[in-house]
Amino acid sequence: MLRLLRALQYPKGLIVAVVAAVSALAAQHVGPQPGQIKNLVTFGDSYTDVVSVGDGGVAWPVYAAGYGPFHLFPFARSGATCSNNLTPRNFPSVFENELPLYFAGVANGSLKLTPEETIYTLWIGTNDVGAGTLLTGNQSPGVTIVDTVSCAVNWVKTLYASGARNFLFQNMIPLQHVPLYSADSYPNRFWTAKRNTTEWSIFMTELVNSGNEIAKLMLQSLPSTLPKAHIGLFDSYALFSDMLVRPQAYLNGTAPLNITGAVRSCIFQENESTSDSGDCTTATGSAKDSFLWFDELHPSEQADRVVAREVTNAIQRKSSRWTTWFS
Ligand SMILES: *[C@@H]1O[C@H](CO)[C@@H](O)[C@H](O)[C@H]1NC(C)=O
Ligand SMILES: *[C@@H]1O[C@H](CO)[C@@H](O)[C@H](O)[C@H]1NC(C)=O
Ligand SMILES: *[C@@H]1O[C@H](CO)[C@@H](O)[C@H](O)[C@H]1NC(C)=O
Ligand SMILES: *[C@@H]1O[C@H](CO)[C@@H](O)[C@H](O)[C@H]1NC(C)=O
Ligand SMILES: *[C@@H]1O[C@H](CO)[C@@H](O)[C@H](O)[C@H]1NC(C)=O
């Protein structure tokens, strides 16, 4: 507004301002062009880790790289939060480990990625809001959901500053429905101490919904400060909500469709060591693809094939179903 007022006093400035406004409008909501993206650089946690795979099979980035096809540069690490300064855990994090590793590769010349042909994805938050962090009050003093989400959005700014231009931000799934955080949960490999599962599910619903809304508002406000970037929000929450409501449209295994249990569900005793093996029920073969969840915390491989398909369609602009491009 100030710039416009100043421009009004100076006709030449006005022309510049109008040209800038028009080109900004033209660049709006476009996202990358079909065929533009050749490289996929992934950041995140076990939902995206291609080595320590969370879904018991092949991780979504590997499927997406095949579907694209894209050259895959995977940096996500199991157990990650956005930053261990905010939510301390004995796992690598996006800011302390994943980004430094990426920048080290760029600095020594082993990673040479043309910005226009490269898209960066981030799927983070599950461990930031979960048991052992925000949900149970184990964050650094004073840290809230505002800080962990700001950190995730800051991933866009940090990569942009280094020249990156295409971003797809994957928000949190409805975690209140994974077996670990559902109201009818049971002691499992992720948590065996006594807890009120109803309270956990209610608090998780609040954390995920507020976190996703904060992320959306923050991402929406980025384009004006990050010119020539394409910033998209992939609505994982909406996609997984649809899988919960219409599993038959996504799951294709030979067992009855199952959105509450898991391919590998292991029941523990209260207070039992989480390194025990528990009392497990495991689906195998073609029955696995009937499940939405792999275990008490992770999406199944079939759910991840869907994620891979939808992310690929978003990047190639074949679908705008789950994705909003803010620039
Ligand atoms: C470049 O840095 C990356 C990340 O630290 C490392 O894995 C790789 O071996 C290095 N390559 C060279 C050629 O130094
Ligand atoms: C668990 O929390 C819910 C919601 O606050 C409450 O209604 C319920 O009584 C609690 N259950 C127990 C066993 O404390
Ligand atoms: C879903 O899977 C769980 C095992 O995790 C099982 O106990 C439950 O009966 C299954 N539900 C349906 C509807 O098949
Ligand atoms: C589990 O541990 C808690 C805290 O040490 C204790 O209060 C509770 O009685 C234990 N539960 C069982 C079933 O041993
Ligand atoms: C389910 O569909 C996927 C493709 O999304 C396919 O790869 C998989 O083999 C199918 N599963 C079964 C059990 O047919």
Automatic annotation (TrEMBL):
Keyword Nucleotidyltransferase: no
Gene Ontology MF terms in the entry: hydrolase activity, acting on ester bonds
Keywords: Hydrolase, Signal
Segment forming the signal sequence: 1-26
Domain of life (superkingdom): Eukaryota
Cross-referenced InterPro entries: GDSL (IPR001087), GDSL_Est/Lipase (IPR051058), SGNH_hydro_sf (IPR036514)
Keyword Transmembrane: no
PANTHER family reported in the protein's UniProt record: GDSL LIPASE/ACYLHYDROLASE FAMILY PROTEIN (AFU_ORTHOLOGUE AFUA_4G14700), GDSL LIPASE_ACYLHYDROLASE FAMILY PROTEIN (AFU_ORTHOLOGUE AFUA_4G14700)
Protein name: Carbohydrate esterase family 16 protein
Organism, scientific name: Meripilus lineatus
